[in-house]
């Protein structure tokens, strides 16, 4: 692009006098971008947008509805806000329901909601579909019909391909068209993390509103979608998810709750909520508390996505589970026969999850049959309202489904996007990757020999880069988890007496929470193979700061 030097000079002089870049006060002037690329964004100059494919989940910290603020913190902050004293507000903030209801008179009411979150899938178009399906779900959970929507997007402009934003919006438009909901506008912000969602307005018969506060003793609980989207998304972020798991979860998250909503209203359901970021336990606990009942859930009957049990057994459980447990765990009673991993599944943050419907027992079988006939094939009876109470959830098990020792979970092949960093926080670059030729280990000797045969500096760089890639792949968690590989790295560093290796791996181990006893045990595995010289070497390095 042509540079307007007069404008650049004027803008940069202003920034320099202030001591801050005027478009990013955290940066000095000249900023790192200007020094590296000779581009002043404050003066309207722009880098060319990158091209190619991109894995969206690699660009965010928490995927999908796991990015939302946890329920306990949110309730604490909202507790002292002033009440909205308007008789036309039929369901508002204090109700803690899925959407707000506003009386328009003549028996009609508006139902309104807003939902925004980070990508739970890598494909931008699919993410847009999921954002739309998730946003209208709150209207469906109340028994309403969505009419209009406003899109909301956060996007790191010019840092990832422009096409990604186009596809996100296109996916959202197509899904909203499927829902019969017109997008009438929107808002966008330049944000470091990608986010998308919609503010949705619908209409509802005010005498047929389905809230989360009217479940009755004896009601049967039906869940219309499988659980595990948060676990699958996390497994995909760390390249441990199988393609079939990712595909099944994406299809479910993109599926509208429209049919389930229409049928629950038709069959006269007493209560409903959609299961999203607060997890099955969080949303069910809110239903139980608001309805003044206690709930019985049969763990073995919970519908789960393919692979979720194996991921849980392998410890692939995202942090949102712990936040949800903190928010509502005191209201969940689980037997000792359920392992911690089995219970954890119930706290998994769902993105665009199913409807959780409470309906009288006499109608439950007919509703379930109708759901299956209309394409809601995953709909399942998962429990019942046990009776009046203080909102406790009793998890029970028949023992027919167990989490066994993990079998190897083969990772999906990561996409080779040039703008994506595939190295997870648990995949440190091996300490010797930048010092090929300094060690006498077999693998590094081969690397040194390969470099010696390279005729040109460019070829040497290619060989070195390929060897670094090999080291990263070898150290990445796959069938062996990152914790085990870290212990192995300590043992091998001691056995080979590689001082920089051991120092780096000791630092990494401590940052991951290894105790000194665990580090010593790993080191002694190396000593047992290499003998007393390795023991002397380890004791010397161990004592260094």
Helix content: 40-55%
Total number of distinct structural domains:
3
The helix/strand class is alpha+beta
CATH fold call of the largest domain: Phosphoribosyl-aminoimidazole Synthetase, Chain A, domain 2
Q: Radius of gyration over alpha carbons? A: 27 Å
CATH structural class of the largest domain: Alpha Beta
Widest sheet, order of strands = 8-11-7-12-9-13-10
Tell me what you see in this structure:
This protein has 545 residues and is α+β, with helices and mostly antiparallel strands. It has 3 domains: 5-47, no CATH class; 57-71 and 84-396, Alpha-Beta Complex (Phosphoribosyl-aminoimidazole Synthetase, Chain A, domain 2); 442-542, AhpD-like (Up-down Bundle), CATH 1.20.1290.10. 41% of the residues lie in helices and 15% in strands. It has helices spanning 5-18, 32-37, 71-78, 124-141, 162-179, 229-237, 243-254, 258-266, 279-291, 308-313, 320-328, 340-344, 361-373, 442-453, 457-475, 482-496, 499-511, 516-530, 532-542; strands at 89-91, 100-105, 108-117, 145-155, 182-190, 195-205, 220-223, 271-274, 293-298, 332-333, 355-359, 380-388, 393-396. The strands form 2 sheets. A 7-stranded mixed sheet has the order 8-11-7-12-9-13-10, with helices on both faces. α5 links the parallel β4 and β5. α16 crosses α18 and α17 (499-511) crosses α19. The longest helix has 19 residues, at 457-475. It is globular and about 80 Å long. Mean pLDDT is 83; it is low at 411-428 and 434-454.
List the SSEs and their pairings.
Layout: H1 5-18, H2 32-37, H3 71-78, E1 89-91, E2 100-105, E3 108-117, H4 124-141, E4 145-155, H5 162-179, E5 182-190, E6 195-205, E7 220-223, H6 229-237, H7 243-254, H8 258-266, E8 271-274, H9 279-291, E9 293-298, H10 308-313, H11 320-328, E10 332-333, H12 340-344, E11 355-359, H13 361-373, E12 380-388, E13 393-396, H14 442-453, H15 457-475, H16 482-496, H17 499-511, H18 516-530, H19 532-542
Parallel strand pairs: 4-5, 9-13, 10-13
Antiparallel strand pairs: 1-2, 2-3, 3-6, 4-6, 7-11, 7-12, 8-11, 9-12
Helix pairs in contact: 4-5, 6-7, 9-11, 14-15, 16-17, 16-18, 17-19, 18-19
């Amino acid at each position: 692009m042509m540079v307007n030097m007069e404008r650049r000079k004027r803008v940069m002089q202003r920034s320099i006098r202030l001591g801050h870049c005027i478009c990013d006060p955290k940066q000095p002037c000249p900023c790192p971008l200007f020094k590296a690329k000779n581009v002043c964004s404050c003066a309207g100059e722009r880098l060319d947008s990158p091209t190619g494919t991109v894995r969206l989940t690699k660009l965010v910290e928490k995927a999908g509805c796991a990015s939302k603020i946890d329920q306990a913190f949110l309730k604490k902050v909202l507790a002292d806000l002033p009440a909205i004293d308007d008789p036309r507000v039929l369901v508002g903030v204090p109700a803690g329901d899925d959407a707000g209801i506003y009386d328009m008179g003549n028996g009609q009411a508006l139902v309104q909601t807003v939902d925004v979150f980070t990508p739970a899938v890598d494909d931008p178009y699919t993410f847009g579909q999921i954002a739309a399906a998730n946003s209208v779900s709150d209207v469906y959970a109340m028994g309403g019909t969505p009419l209009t929507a406003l899109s909301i997007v956060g996007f790191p402009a010019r840092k990832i391909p422009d096409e990604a934003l186009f596809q996100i919006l296109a996916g959202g438009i197509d899904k909203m068209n499927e829902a019969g909901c017109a997008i009438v506008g929107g808002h966008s912000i330049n944000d470091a993390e990608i986010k998308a969602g919609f503010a949705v307005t619908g209409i509802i018969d005010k005498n047929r509103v389905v809230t989360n506060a009217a479940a009755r003793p004896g009601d049967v609980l039906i869940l219309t979608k499988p659980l595990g989207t948060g676990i699958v998304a996390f497994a995909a972020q760390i390249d441990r998810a199988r393609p079939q798991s990712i595909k099944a979860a994406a299809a479910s998250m993109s599926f509208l709750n429209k049919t389930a909503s229409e049928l629950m209203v038709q069959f006269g359901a007493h209560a409903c909520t959609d299961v999203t970021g607060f997890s099955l336990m969080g949303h069910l606990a809110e239903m139980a508390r608001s309805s003044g009942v206690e709930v019985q859930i049969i763990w073995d009957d919970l519908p789960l996505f393919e692979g979720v049990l194996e991921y849980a057994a392998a410890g692939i459980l995202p942090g949102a589970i712990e936040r949800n447990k903190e928010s509502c765990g005191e209201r969940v009673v689980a037997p000792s026969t359920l392992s911690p991993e089995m219970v954890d599944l119930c706290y998994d943050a769902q993105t665009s999850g199913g409807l959780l419907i409470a309906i009288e027992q006499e109608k439950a079988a007919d509703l379930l049959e109708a759901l299956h006939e209309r394409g809601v094939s995953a709909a399942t009876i998962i429990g019942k309202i046990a009776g009046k109470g203080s909102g406790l959830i009793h998890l029970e098990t028949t023992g027919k489904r167990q989490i066994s020792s993990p079998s190897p979970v083969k990772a999906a092949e990561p996409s080779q996007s040039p703008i994506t960093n595939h190295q997870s926080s648990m995949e440190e670059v091996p300490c010797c990757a930048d010092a090929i030729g300094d060690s006498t280990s077999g693998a590094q000797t081969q690397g040194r020999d390969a470099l010696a045969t390279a005729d040109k500096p460019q070829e040497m760089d290619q060989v070195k880069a390929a060897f670094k890639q090999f080291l990263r792949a070898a150290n990445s968690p796959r069938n062996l988890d990152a914790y085990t590989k870290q212990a192995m790295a300590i043992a091998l560093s001691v056995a080979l007496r590689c001082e920089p290796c051991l120092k780096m791996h000791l630092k990494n181990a401590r940052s991951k929470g290894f105790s000194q006893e665990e580090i010593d045990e790993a080191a002694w595995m190396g000593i047992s193979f290499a003998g007393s010289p390795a023991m002397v070497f380890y004791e010397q390095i161990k004592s260094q700061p």
